[in-house]
Design brief:
Elements: E1 4-8, E2 33-38, E3 41-42, H1 62-74, E4 78-86, H2 93-113, E5 121-127, H3 138-144, E6 146-154, E7 157-158, E8 169-170
Parallel strand pairs: 4-5
Antiparallel strand pairs: 1-2, 2-3, 4-6, 5-8, 6-7
Length: 174
Amino acid sequence: MRSLPLVVLLSACAGAPAEPSPAAPSVPAAAAVDYRIVDGRVEVPDAVTFVTGAAALSTASDAALWHVVGFLVAKPSITTLRIEVHGDGVGDRAAEQALGEARAAAVFARLVELGADPKRLLAVAFGDEKPVAAADTPEGQAQNRRVEFRPAAMRGKAIGGMPLDGGGRVVAPK
């Protein structure tokens, strides 16, 4: 699938009010950000990571999450962005699903803290249902353990005829 670039100016205009409007969160300034959707997911600058075995986000995740907030500001036509949390395929499946659900809720909450509109977010956990690599090596497990952001609806209509949840378990925001 090809990459669709979108360059958006995020720097403030001269003479603009210092206070951000409630409709547009204050995204950290950058000269220009190149937002890309690759293989159906928003490309982020860094991985979203968690404390091992927990739902607590690492502070290193904020760069990716700010990027997602900026994407939502730049793309108001994306009316639903699906937060997908995937497990590594190691251990008890039920425990992995529960951890994924808690992590999806944590990502949702942090995006809202950063200014994302909660009505445009859908948190979903897949457990080990959608691996991208064999789970028999540490490298494969690391590839499978991921968070992806997928546009699910544009202007209120599901993209590609897929269900908004993508087949995962929807997590109720806390």
